[in-house]
Amino acid sequence: MAAGEASKSERTVIVSGIPDGILKDEVMADILMIHFQRAKNRGGDVEGIVYPTTTKGVAYITFEDQKVTENVLKKGEHQLEDKRLPRHYPLKVSLYSEDVFSCISCVLDLSGFGDKCVLEDLVQELQKNITALSFSPLQPNGQISVQGSFPSIQSLKDNLLLKANSLSKTDKKAKCMSSQRSNSKTQKHGVSVESKNNFIHNADGEKQVVLDTDVYYYMKHILHEDSLAKKSVVSREVTDGEITILYLERVNASSDPSKLEKAKKKIEDLSAELHSKLRKKRFHLDRSKHEMQMYQHACKRVQSQYSQVLVIPYETHIDVIGSSSDVFGFAQEMKTKVKHYLQKTPQEMIVR
């Protein structure tokens, strides 16, 4: 069975960037099936498709022939096209692994731009500039869901900051009344795109770093990179689901401004390095109380053997984050211990 599972994993790809919520799931699954069977996409016979999955915008495609899988991966760029779709959607296709950081999602509050531009036009502009992102329909309150790779989310942040600065300068030139000048100043210091907790906030003398939350937790708890005192920089974090914003400020006004920029660059460089190296394994806890205790107990035992692995427990699952080899070793140890615990009663586990 192990050989069969290994063979299947070598014939399976993970697909991200699938537009969510615009069509029924069965229709989208059909579109994906057609896409990966087409010769122009270097596809072939599909053994099975898993969609939707626990991650929005992600599907698993298993081909009958491993050679087809290799050809699909070699194609490079995949564009999801169908007359039932409003536009073309770029897809990210990679060899299947439960340990891959595939995509993240967040909710933007664009209402701050409402009195400066037409929000529908702003969304269309963002869609045109960042085609790798998927946008949900704009809500009446100005909120919109966005999904894509972490680098694409970073690009979105940069686009929104440029737009905010552009609108702020235009607004400042156009208004001359004192109250209007006050509003212009507010725009300069506080035009924001929020996702519950200030998704982006642009202020003088402050630097922001947009981070994948898992990467940030790894930096903070494993690498202890949250200590910026040596660079005369203080920080505060705002976490909203899969995105964390790190706000950096100088300890005092007389501090060297270049230290702030150096601290920002160091964190960004480390984040980019970790995002390409780290892998995540999720152990779901939607089981009986005994099984939940079993997994939690096994996780604590294994964690002591892997100092460079971050374990984040939640009510419904446990996330394990680290290098590919460490996460794989951790998962194997977990399977061994869980198998051992299955033979024990809850009382025996507590005594042990």
Order of helices and strands: HEHEEHEEEHEEHHEEEHEEHEHEEHH
Task: Fill in the CATH topology of the largest domain.
Answer: Alpha-Beta Plaits
- CATH top level of the largest domain? Alpha Beta
How far apart lie the N and C ends? 32 Å
Helical content stands at 40-55%
GO molecular function, one term: RNA binding
Protein name: RNA-binding protein 43 isoform X2
InterPro entries: Nmi/IFP35_dom, Nucleotide-bd_a/b_plait_sf, RBD_domain_sf, RRM_dom
Keywords: RNA-binding
Structural account:
With 352 residues, this protein is α+β, with helices and mostly antiparallel strands. The chain folds into four domains: 8-95, 2-Layer Sandwich (Alpha-Beta Plaits), CATH 3.30.70; 103-167, Ribosomal Protein S8, Chain: A, domain 1 (2-Layer Sandwich), CATH 3.30.1370; 206-278, Ribosomal Protein S8, Chain: A, domain 1 (2-Layer Sandwich), CATH 3.30.1370; 285-343, no CATH class. The protein is 42% helix and 24% strand. It contains eleven helices and 16 strands. The protein has helices at residues 2-10, 25-37, 66-74, 119-129, 150-174, 178-190, 213-221, 257-277, 289-303, 324-341, 346-351; strands spanning 12-16, 46-50, 58-63, 78-80, 89-95, 104-109, 134-135, 143-148, 192-193, 200-201, 206-212, 233-240, 243-250, 278-284, 310-313, 317-323. Strands 2-3-1-5-4 form a five-stranded antiparallel sheet. It has a three-stranded antiparallel sheet with strand order 6-8-7, with helices on one face. It has a three-stranded antiparallel sheet with strand order 11-13-12. A hairpin with a 7-residue loop joins β7 (134-135) and β8 (143-148). α5 runs antiparallel to α6. The model is unreliable at 1-6 and 176-203 (pLDDT under 50).
